[in-house]
Write a structure and sequence with these properties.
Number of strands: 2
Strand order of the largest sheet: 1-2
Strand content: 5-15%
Number of domains: 2
Structural class: mainly alpha
Radius of gyration: 23 Å
Shape: elongated
Distance between the termini: 44 Å
Number of helices: 13
Length: about 300
């Protein structure tokens, strides 16, 4: 059975690297960037067109690791030897990479062996990693779709007991019905993606990523991981390193498990959890939304 790089599997890999030092941030960042992409294109079914979601996330991981590897190599003074070469009688200084010293570095060695070297194709498989331009063009569209999924989670969390009274199964039909009424009431029902079948299909594809988006949109979890960095940004590596601080990620993942477990318990949903020890959080109740949703439930 294939193991996809879903948000929850990536979160588990991130949490395996616990250190607060820069070396640990490098190693976490190789998973943090694809995690930010997986929240918009969650495997296995969150792809775009003919590009499958697992391919998108795998490309993100390989690209991030390659950029981290380069950045590490250029920043590692001990990996460079100061030499000279002579040209027309002039001695010109230059730096030469000491590959043996570079691969003695734990971070460089781990990035290469874990993410860049393929036992079948060597490093030639990296040549198959295409530009991310197509994927990045879809960021805004996918953020809008994920926003709809976060809205569904918000309805579940605000009106859980009332939805449960009306629900025949897991309550998603009731939630979608309330959401569509809400869009109509707000005058936002013109979007062709805002129909019952499309929203229900997307919920089945995006449920775990939807919980993360709910934390961002409705619970004040403004982690930079929710805004993927452009691959060609000159600050790509510094930004993904800053996104990889352990304690902030741990809190986000604990909050995710808290909300997912509540939804699973109340409605027999099957949202994947990371499996962290139980933690308790105080949810923002958003009474403005709750009152409107309750009125639409009647």
């Amino acid at each position: 059975m294939a193991i996809f790089l879903t948000p929850t599997t990536l979160a588990k890999n991130i949490l395996k690297i616990e250190g607060a030092d820069l070396d640990s941030q490098y190693l976490r960042a190789a998973y943090v960037y694809p995690f930010s992409i997986a929240m918009l294109f969650p495997p296995p079914l969150g792809g775009i067109g003919r590009i499958k979601a697992p391919t998108i996330v795998s490309r993100a991981k390989a690209t991030a690791a390659a950029k981290l590897f380069d950045h590490r190599a250029f920043d590692l003074d001990s990996a460079w030897a100061n030499t000279e070469y002579e040209l027309f009688g002039l001695k010109i200084p230059r730096k030469t990479l000491r590959t043996r010293t570079l691969f003695a570095d734990r971070v460089a060695r781990s990035l290469f062996s874990s993410h860049l070297f393929n036992s079948k194709d060597g490093i030639s498989h990296l040549l198959k990693v295409p530009t991310f331009e197509i994927t990045e063009k879809e960021f805004d569209t996918r953020k809008e779709e994920m926003g709809r999924m976060a809205d569904l989670v918000n309805i579940y969390m605000l009106c859980g007991p009332e939805i449960k009274k009306k629900a025949k199964y897991n309550g998603i039909d009731v939630v979608i019905n309330v959401y569509l009424k809400y869009l109509t009431m707000c005058g936002n029902k013109d979007d062709e993606t805002a129909d019952e079948s499309t929203i229900a299909k997307n919920w089945g594809r995006f449920d775990s990523a939807a919980v993360f988006q709910y934390l961002y949109m409705f619970q004040g979890q403004n982690h930079p991981i929710f805004s993927p960095v452009a691959i060609d940004s000159e600050n790509f590596v510094p930004e993904i390193l800053s996104m990889s601080e352990f304690c902030a990620l741990l809190k986000l993942f604990e909050f995710y498990d808290f909300v997912s477990s509540k939804l699973n318990e109340m409605f027999s949903l099957e949202i994947p959890v990371i499996g962290l020890p139980a933690a308790s959080f105080e949810l923002k109740d958003n009474p403005k939304y709750r009152d409107k949703f309750l009125a639409l439930l009647k």
